[in-house]
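SAMPLE LOG
Freezer: B-3
Tube label: C17
Construct: single chain, 229 aa
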Amino acid sequence: MKKLYKILCVLVLSLLWYACNSNDNEPVPVVKSLASGTMKDARDGYVYHWARYGGLDWTVENSHYNTNDKNCSIYTMSTSLSSSDSSDSTILKKFGYLYNYKGALEAAPTGWRVPTDEDWKKLEEALGMSDKEADALEWRGNYTATLMTQDSTGTGLKLLYGGYYTAITSYLFAYNMINDYGFYWTSTMDTTKNESAYYRKIFYNSSKVFRYSTNCDNKYSVRFVRDAQ
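STRUCTURE (predicted):
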């Protein structure tokens, strides 16, 4: 009985600590883009919308460009990586393709680029994150992810929870976390690690944004940016 009581006390204290240290319930400000528009990828005719933040134009759809190689794939619910059933096409329409680092760079249309780590920081700061937080690793920002996922009634950035593909072959499933997590590449390599690049991650139940680096063979979603025109 005493052991159970101690366990309950630890759980209660942990929950209280989390409540005191979590700012996920902080009021979310209204933030609107300074400009918006569309652009068509001349290679496949796909039309992207964009919104302007931090001196950059950001596409508000995930990349839909098929590089037609192993660097690009559709998140599949099937155990077969070559599956192309109707559920895959539905996922593609909403979430776009997943790319490894090389594929992400290949997918960028003329005049646009995969955002650098600094580009992502500019966006985060334009949405209210402090310079110090933007430079930090792991989960940062009190309501930044909430703003990043808003539709046209808010920021219009519409980041999605498209999951990821893991290059670690020991995992039971290669594709994971769709509708729970969104992973987005930066084009910035992490010079402290071998073959790693920075990325951003959002979680459906958090208002914070995760910053870290990862293996370039993993496959994540991609957004594009350009300097404001």
